[in-house]
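Subject: sequence -> structure tokens, single chain

Hey, anyone have a minute? Need the predicted structure for the following. Not urgent.
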Amino acid sequence: MEKMKIMLVDDEERFLATTKKLLLKRGYEALTATSGTEALEKLKSHLVHVVILDVKMPGMDGTATLREIKKLFPHIEVIVLTGRATVESAVECLEAGATDYVMKPCDIDDLLKTAEEAFEKRQRLKENSRQE
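Reply:
Had a minute. Here:
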């Protein structure tokens, strides 16, 4: 089975560095981006299965980034991670195609469980489309 490749997108560089280190320690491949624009550029040249995306970022915010990811790379699962959740933001992100909406701070094991579930969903959809 293919190993999950994750991209973390957040303007908080300390969060990115710490989370990436934890993911690598657990055997995952992880890329990081500090903006929506950087994430979209990296997605053009790197295979990524699951994006963990912050909502509040300068420039292109998480919601705009999510919409662009789903338009350009519809098979990538996106988990929105935010420290300032609102019902409106959650609804908007889920309607735009987010797999899940998670509050910061969150336990790394819970986040990985959510990412694994998103990855498994993606793998099932990929397998089903091959069988049709």
